[in-house]
User: Fold Failed axon connections homolog from Sinocyclocheilus rhinocerous.
Amino acid sequence: MYWVAGFASSRSFVVDLGRNQSPSFGLCGSDDRHLFYGYIVAVPAQDFGGIMSGLVSDSWWKKTLYITGGALLAAAAYLLHELLSFRKEQQLDSKDAIILHQFSRPKNGVPSLSPFCLKMETYLRMVDLPYQNYFDGSLSSQGKMPWVEYNYEQVCGNEFIIDFLEEKLGVSLNKSLSAQEQAVARAITTMVEEHLYWTIAYCQWVDNVQETQRMLDLPGPLSDLLKWILCQLTGGIVKREMYCHGIGCFTKEEVYSLMEKDMRTLATLLGDKKYIMGPKLSSVDATVFGHLAQAMWTLPGTRPEQLIKGELINLAMYCERIRKKFWPEWFVDLEDFCYDSDNDTSSGTPTCMLDLGLFSRTDTLEDSDLSLPSHSNTHSQDSDHSGRSLSDSDIEADGSDVEQQVKGEI
Assistant:
């Protein structure tokens, strides 16, 4: 019996055995050097000769089938490696600067297909904090997106990010709320993020995945194949996590029934008020907007869109109110404001969206009780047609204007 020895490791590595050099090991695509660790394993190779002899003895079409299958597997492995490969991240100076890491912009003009990324960026605009977008797609150390850096501190999880910014910069959207109102706002946030989110994610990444795939924006000649692989991976993750959550055990109709109940609850809570908790903004508005915007603008022809643009029109007006106030560069065709099954929802919409980072708009906070940080007075005075102060300085992973490919999970 013949045996083959090999090395098993949990990470990719490069072995450098140049002449007159000691061995060095590093991550693929990186100049960093890491310790060489793993396990030496030995496996029996007695069947290897049998496989090769079978290839020789088989007919030509079987050989072709073996070779083609191997080539396809190798190509798939290469594409997955390119999609999920480790990259040496550009070092960013977060001294007195908020750097928001999030997924790249989609092609349909919506800021993000992730409700949590949209929530976080909307919140930063609501509290009028300048920030820089970083579309590298790298997840936080906890495997989450989005996450922020500030003064070389990294924080992930929207709730923890908001608490962190309130503590460090003294801003808050909830100062005008009573203790009971804050409890109600937290209950609404929990319902939206822990229940409604899964029903929208199901519609987005499972039931309506073809439309979502068309919205993704990935560079390169193999972008269509990469988008297909990404959507299949994300759809599998969503279904698995929904099952672990419990909501994935139900049928499609039952999932949509739960979604409808949550949306009707939000419509009832909103009523004819300007915002969820009344005439003034609160952090729950960023949460609700981030999730309802997905139903409003990323799911054409689906049941969530029909519901929000039809019977629950007050939710659509609420989303439009926040979009106009905090996203002046986000173009929306108002002719598609109400649902029309014969209407082409893609007509009239731009293929891309301006990335306005370091966003500051101090004249839209007249109805908010905020304590602004001292550096708010240093914002750019460039204005758009409405007089809002804007500053454009989104940055990319490699410093170019081309967005990096999307990686990670929702």
About this structure: The radius of gyration is 25 Å. The chain has eleven helices and eight strands. The longest strand covers residues 3-8. Residues 27 and 233 are 24 Å apart (CA to CA).
